[in-house]
Automatic annotation (TrEMBL):
This is Copper-containing nitrite reductase. Its EC number is 1.7.2.1. It is an enzyme of class 1 (oxidoreductase). Residues 11-51 are annotated as: Disordered. Residues 382-471 form the Cytochrome c domain. It comes from the Bacteria. It catalyses: nitric oxide + Fe(III)-[cytochrome c] + H2O = Fe(II)-[cytochrome c] + nitrite + 2 H(+). Residues 11-22 have a biased composition (Basic and acidic residues). One of its GO terms (molecular function) is nitrite reductase (NO-forming) activity. Belongs to the multicopper oxidase family. Residues 23-32 have a biased composition (Low complexity).
Length: 498
């Protein structure tokens, strides 16, 4: 132990020596000098008003070779905004958005911070910037009642990407309502140039109602204390960065993401499906790691990441704690346009039957039905019995053995008015899958059922007949000829999963 410690001591000594030979502040030097080397003297020139941007945009690079006085003016606004389709939430914001406005300064700058609290706010607020050197990070000095403004000044001594957040009691509640954002303190030489920069920030949200329950949803303190979020989101709303609002880029470009995690509770396993980060300035610090699949971003932490785009298509930003992505909203899209690169990524090349040692034979009812079908003596009862055996283990995984589904996730097949209205929808859903909005018994579902076209026409006919004749559904029968028609009516959905 003593030897190990002595060695460690030795190593540190060597690092420090080696470091003195290198220019200070180089991104990959062993030691940037931290706050001790971050004071470049008094501000020079006229004070500069900081350019603030709403997410997902990032202010332009500072592009300055001297320290300046930078004036930041930020207004706290409490406002109702959509958190999901048809769902609203009263957010508390820095600058009217969640996350709050992006602030960009240079190491050594003197930042004169003006915090205003809108007159129609209900609460006092303040700001704690993790890039501040000084007790509370500005919190006590910036405590501001509704309809007031306050001012404090700090010198940004450490370069890095820093979270800022409200620190007014109860702190967790202010953060949970969206009071966080990012401040980038550029190293003196700036960040390496890239083609595009975007601002993305994760946060967890706690509402009284369930995930996607419509209407205005109040904050749920109990869920927050239990760390059971209803939503986990990028940029404050489900769909904030999908569809028309997706991030965009072109192939051949290098994209940089400035990603923060406001929390208040969860740690993010940040990942872009189909890309590898060429560089990650992990924890928002000075050094980068290369060739990274997933980077951990703690609550109250941040990271920068660069990746070069080769192949066109949609890249999905997720928290790889993956239920959060598909069942709580932590999902965003970056759309890359450009010519195909089949040499790098081919798309699907082969899709053929692979039977393996599929143990179909020991399903007695299925065998009976198959035999009856051959002789033309197949009864509805045979079909129901065979369908029942197939339902278990195929459909029950999601719709549950009793057909009741799972509220908000998998719709019920039991007493389903969707099925009653459209009995042939059952084999269609099995063969072609189902996605987009469906309403079953007054409840809305918006998810994806994958096509299960590996099932034979017989099997689909039997499962459908079983479903139609159970759990209060209207009855009836689906034949394998009908199934063959439905199968032919639309090409199989060649969706590319993760
Ligand atoms: Cu606040």
């Amino acid at each position: 132990m003593a030897v190990a410690l002595a060695l460690a001591g030795c190593d540190r000594g060597r690092d420090a020596d080696a470091d003195d030979a290198k220019p200070a502040g180089t991104a990959q030097s062993d030691d940037s000098g931290g706050s001790k080397k971050g004071d470049f003297g008094p501000p020079q020139g006229e004070p500069i008003k900081a350019v603030l941007t709403a997410p997902p945009m990032v202010p332009p690079p500072v592009n300055r070779n001297h320290p300046a006085k930078v004036i930041v003016e930020l207004e706290v606004v409490e406002k109702e905004m959509p958190i999901s389709e048809g769902v609203t939430y009263t957010f508390w914001t820095f600058g009217g958005t969640v996350p709050g406005s992006f602030i960009r300064v240079r190491q050594g700058d003197t930042v004169e911070f003006h915090l205003k609290n809108a007159p129609d706010s209900k609460m006092p607020h303040n700001i704690d910037l993790h890039g501040v050197t000084g007790p509370g990070g500005g919190a006590a000095s910036s405590f501001t009642a509704p309809g007031h403004k306050s001012r404090f000044t700090f010198k940004a001594l450490n370069a890095g990407l820093y979270v800022y957040h409200c620190a007014t009691a109860p702190v967790g509640m202010h953060v949970a309502n969206g009071m966080y954002g990012l401040i980038l303190v550029e190293p003196p030489e700036g960040m390496p140039k890239v083609d595009r920069e975007y601002y993305v920030m994760q946060g967890d949200f706690y509402t009284k109602g369930k995930y996607r329950e419509k209407g205005h949803q109040p904050f749920d303190m109990e869920k927050a204390i239990d760390e059971h979020p209803t939503y986990v989101l990028f940029n404050g709303a489900e769909g904030a960065l999908t569809g028309d609002k997706a991030l965009t880029a072109k192939t051949g470009e290098t994209v940089r993401l400035y990603v923060g995690n406001g929390g208040p509770n969860l740690v993010s396993s940040f990942h872009v499906i189909g890309e590898i980060f060429d560089k990650v300035w992990f924890e928002g610090g000075t050094k980068y790691q290369e060739n990274v699949q997933t980077t951990l971003i703690p609550a109250g932490g941040a990271a920068m990441m660069d990746f070069h785009l080769e192949v066109p298509g949609s890249y999905v930003l997720v928290d790889h704690s993956i239920f959060r992505a598909f069942n709580k909203g932590a999902l965003a899209i970056l759309k890359a346009d450009g010519p195909e690169r089949k040499d790098i990524y081919s798309g699907k090349e082969v899709d053929e039957v692979y039977l393996g040692d599929r143990a179909q034979a020991n399903l007695q009812a299925v065998a009976t039905a198959a035999a009856a079908a051959k002789t033309g003596a197949l009864t509805v009862q045979d079909q129901i019995a065979a369908g029942k055996a197939l339902f278990a283990g195929t459909c029950s995984t999601c719709h549950q053995a009793n057909g009741e589904g799972l509220e908000g996730v998998f719709p019920p097949l039991a007493k389903s008015d969707w099925i009653a209205k459209n009995p042939k929808g059952v084999p269609t859903a099995i063969l072609h899958g189902l996605q987009g909005k469906v309403v079953v018994n007054g409840k809305e579902y918006n998810s994806v059922m994958p096509p299960m076209n590996q099932l034979t026409d017989d099997e689909v006919a039997n499962i459908s007949t079983f479903v139609l004749n159970n759990w209060g559904n209207p009855g009836g029968r689906v034949t394998k000829e009908e199934v063959a028609q439905i199968r032919a009516s639309k090409p199989a959905n060649a969706s590319e999963g993760h």
